[in-house]
Amino acid sequence: MKTAGVIGGGAWGTALALVCARAGLSTTLWAREPEVVGAINESRENKTFLPGVIFDAPVRATGSLAELSEADFVLNVTPAQHLRASLEAFRPHARAGVPMVLCSKGVEQGSLKLMTEVLDEGLPQAVPAVLSGPSFAADVARGLPTAVTLACPDDEIGFQIAAALSLPTFRPYLATDMIGAEIGGAVKNVLAIACGISEGKGLGRSAHAALITRGFAEMTRMAVALGAEAETVAGLCGLGDLVLTCSSPQSRNMSVGLALGGGQTLEQALAGKVSVAEGVASAPAVVALARKLEVEAPICEAVAAILAGQAQVDEAIAGLLSRPIRSER
Q: Of the four listed, 23, 34, 88, 310, which is most buried by Cβ atoms within 10 Å?
């Protein structure tokens, strides 16, 4: 594989485009915003979504999806709730059998479908893969060491993509369980909001650890109910991503929770943010999916209720702490 296309010019899409370029791939990045395309091509910097990172490898930006038609594989990094639209737009330019690596993390509202299911409907001729794991865009863009999961049911194509992306500072680990990789990425965003709320309320490190641990149990139950392997969720794409996203205000989702825990409204918490906090949009879909699967997910339910204005922060916390005594397992 010698050429890569990236759909999505946000911080994460830009960081992954830099990974591709540093790995020696001829890389084309599609961005919706003309100002992003112009800034990348003229000053080698995404001033809107990743300011301060000057590109150290050649990335060409474009506003035309047709220019990604000859890429050996495509990374789709559009927000989860916009994945379907991006696939529809790319469909006229997609070659049959092109690998599409899904880098969005979420559950589609309404349909309650995972990103691979959306891909199967929107671009069925593509070979699916999922890239997920503990990875802040700023860290990856600056070349700091990062390890991720690359899940693909086709072992050979998965290996080819992993080899094409591999760098001394960016290490993909292979898997075939795409469902496990997807659920880990989707649920951890909701749980990061919960951890942010706990931090904003000053509930302490013990509460923070409990939220991560019990949240991981919710994530695992949902993944297994969907047919995933518990071992996948215990890896980089589940536990690893959960620990990172729930432990730093650099996380967009945790920062939203911090604001909510500090007394701000959701509108105030989201004001001025140029990047999407996926957990806000995914929370109701994650909860609806858990109910459909008959899986208990009390932390996710509490977050969704707070975001929807159906419960106050203190009320939701009290509800979690007053649940009936039960076995940990």
A: 23
